[in-house]
Amino acid sequence: MRNHSTGRGVYLVRQCPPKDAVRSRGFGMSAAIFSAAALCLFASLSLSGEAGQQTKLVIAVVNMDKLLSDYVAYQEANKKFEAEVAWRQEMLVIREMLKHDEWRELDNLEALAREGKLTEKGEKRLEELKRVSNERRDMLKLLMAKKLTEEERKLLEELQGIMRSNEGELQKLRDKYEADLDRIQRFYLERFGKEIAEAIKTVAQRYGIKLVIAKRSNGGGQILFDELVLYADPTLEITQQVLNILNAKETRPPETKEQPKK
User: What domain count does the chain have?
Assistant: First the structure.
């Protein structure tokens, strides 16, 4: 959308997560879009058509870093995505040191919170479960760093048992969270990718632009558009003409002359 940390970067851009992580894991336009502040560059070129006529080619460049940083809806969605990642991360951390009955209780509280139905009593219980989990984790670290009495040794074994008993379920839940975050991320990227493409096409056609290319200083927008060309007028298509030359009967592979033997 990224240990048990999520590691998803800003702008919904996915990165490689740590082994135990969910993720280590992403445009408003106006008539002034072609100013230096928004769209960086125009260039005019003259191309010769097939009949020898001159065709004016207007090229525009979109600064993808600025586009994404100033696109309000995109940034709002990104904040929601980051909040979702943080919430799931917190739920994983809490569960690590909970007993099974406490885990199921947390499941119910989490479901109510997602539905917006968590009561004040439920919120207090959720905070209490967080406190219990954190206290057990802190105690585990403390006991592992000191010489133990017999009573402390038993407590350490109990805490380690809780952690070990949760490993399998934690991995399943981590995988589920990962799949959920991937689905949410794909939804956002598809939505904003389409909106940006439509906006670019609208502006290009309005101003008679034949070709729009991307400018990226920090890899901006590459998760949305891998291509350098963001829009190309169909009249620029010359694939068939190239194929005509390549497939022409007159075209022959170059002959190679055998080098004389010395």
Answer: 1
